[in-house]
């Protein structure tokens, strides 16, 4: 048996009939030498906001708006774009049955979705579970479509839908590593029976998930699904296919001299992800690194490129990699720079009526109360300066600042729209 490799394709990589055909060719090629397992995100254009998942989330909002039935229009749009991609990819096929079955399935799934949404509209309620059912449609359609395209290219492919992945009860407020271990096990159970005879095409969505997948994991969950599959089936590598050659020393669109990194450590990749480079979902890294599986970032537009390899410590070197070059790559030089937009800087200066250790504790207690996450921090005994990225609401930040002002002076930099 050849090495097992998990291949994850993002929405843009499979965003049209043309892209689907291209990726199917890439997978067919990879299959010559390895056992690939494909995990797909929902189809998307270059703008995430116009992708299938965003449209489904918009539909969720519309269901609860009185008098609006715009959600039906959104489902029509989704149905049409998938049918269009199906016809582009399979319209000239000699095997007419593949397209016919696919079209029936797309129409059938969309019809089920309309009925489900209409029911939610009547009871005027969308539970986290219902939201999962609605959002899961994006990955179901892309995976079903891609399976047909592979079949059409003569590759035996198996569509794997993860609707029934979770069969145990979990408390949404207490999800820990044991939940992810359970998922890896279950994913392996779903995939292993077909893996050696078929290319498994798995939906990036799994669920319904305790507390809803979007609340528990958030957008970009397909990376995590792919990682958990890699762990479950003990894959040799997890490949995340994107539209860039790998991870760069800086954003190549802004810095023309930016260089692609051949290797990067998981810690560095995680830092880049947290600080603005949308490389990979942050939960992904931890899971594969625990299992000592390398991640490779590859480019769908340049399948022969070597990409960037994220190698966990202690992983045996690939034969082509000399340990000298790797230790060079991990030497203590800055690896890359990244930019994060919309950052607010808070400079908090103690008014010295409180003792200094109490000052820091109080400041962070208040930030915690208002769910404010600090990205970077620099402190002295009476001064703390911090960069804050995403905030839940301006109101919360405003309240936190008011409270801090009771014992310190607060100066806000980069405030943009925000005033306090
Ligand atoms: N399609 C989903 C999203 O846009 C999941 C993913 O892309 O991983 O968040
Ligand atoms: Mg993504």
UniProtKB/TrEMBL annotation:
Gene3D superfamilies: 3.30.70.260, Acetylglutamate kinase-like (3.40.1160.10). InterPro entries: AceGlu_kinase-like_sf, ACT-like_dom_sf, Asp/Glu/Uridylate_kinase, Asp_kin_monofn, Asp_kinase, Aspartate_kinase_CS. Keywords: ATP-binding, Kinase, Nucleotide-binding, Transferase. GO terms for biological process: homoserine biosynthetic process; lysine biosynthetic process via diaminopimelate. Residues 4-299 form the Aspartate/glutamate/uridylate kinase domain. It catalyses: L-aspartate + ATP = 4-phospho-L-aspartate + ADP. GO terms for molecular function: aspartate kinase activity; ATP binding. It holds the Pfam family AA_kinase. Its EC number is 2.7.2.4. One of its GO terms (cellular component) is cytosol. Belongs to the aspartokinase family. This is Aspartokinase. It comes from Boothiomyces macroporosus.
């Amino acid at each position: 048996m050849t090495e097992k490799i998990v291949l994850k394709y993002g929405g843009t990589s499979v965003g049209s009939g043309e892209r689907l055909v291209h990726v199917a060719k890439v997978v067919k090629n990879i299959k010559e030498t390895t056992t690939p397992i494909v995990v797909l995100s929902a189809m998307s254009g270059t703008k995430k906001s116009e992708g299938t998942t965003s449209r489904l989330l918009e539909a969720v909002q519309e269901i609860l708006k009185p008098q609006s039935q715009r959600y039906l229009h959104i489902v029509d749009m989704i149905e049409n774009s998938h049918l269009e991609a199906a016809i582009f990819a399979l319209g000239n096929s000699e095997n007419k049955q593949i397209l016919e079955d696919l079209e029936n399935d797309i129409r059938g799934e969309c019809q089920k979705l309309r009925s489900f949404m209409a029911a939610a509209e009547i009871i005027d309620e969308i539970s986290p579970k219902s939201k999962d059912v609605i959002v899961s449609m994006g990955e179901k359609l892309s995976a079903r479509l891609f399976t047909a395209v592979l079949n059409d290219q003569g590759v035996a492919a198996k569509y794997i839908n993860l609707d029934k992945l979770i069969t145990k009860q979990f408390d949404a407020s207490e999800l820990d590593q044991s939940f992810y271990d359970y998922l890896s096990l279950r994913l392996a159970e779903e995939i292993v029976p077909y893996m050696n005879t078929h290319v498994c095409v798995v939906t990036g969505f799994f669920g319904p998930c305790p507390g809803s997948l979007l609340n528990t994991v958030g957008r970009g969950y397909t990376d995590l699904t792919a990682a958990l599959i890699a762990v479950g089936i003990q894959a040799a590598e997890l490949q995340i296919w994107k539209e860039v050659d790998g991870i760069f020393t800086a954003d190549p669109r802004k810095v023309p001299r930016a260089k692609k990194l051949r290797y990067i450590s998981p810690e560095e990749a995680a830092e880049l992800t947290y600080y603005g480079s949308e490389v990979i979902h942050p939960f992904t890294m931890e899971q594969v690194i625990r299992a000592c599986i390398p991640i490779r970032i590859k480019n769908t537009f340049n399948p022969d490129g070597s990409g960037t390899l994220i190698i966990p410590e202690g992983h045996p070197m690939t034969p082509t990699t000399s340990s000298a070059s790797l230790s060079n790559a991990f030497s203590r030089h800055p690896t890359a720079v990244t930019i994060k937009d919309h950052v607010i800087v808070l400079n908090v200066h103690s008014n010295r009526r409180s003792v200094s250790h109490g000052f820091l504790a109080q400041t962070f207690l208040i930030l915690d109360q208002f769910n404010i996450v600090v990205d970077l921090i620099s402190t002295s005994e009476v001064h703390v300066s911090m960069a804050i990225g995403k905030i839940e609401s301006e109101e919360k930040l405003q309240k936190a600042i008011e409270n801090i002002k009771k014992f310190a002076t607060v100066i806000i930099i980069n405030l943009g729209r925000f005033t306090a």
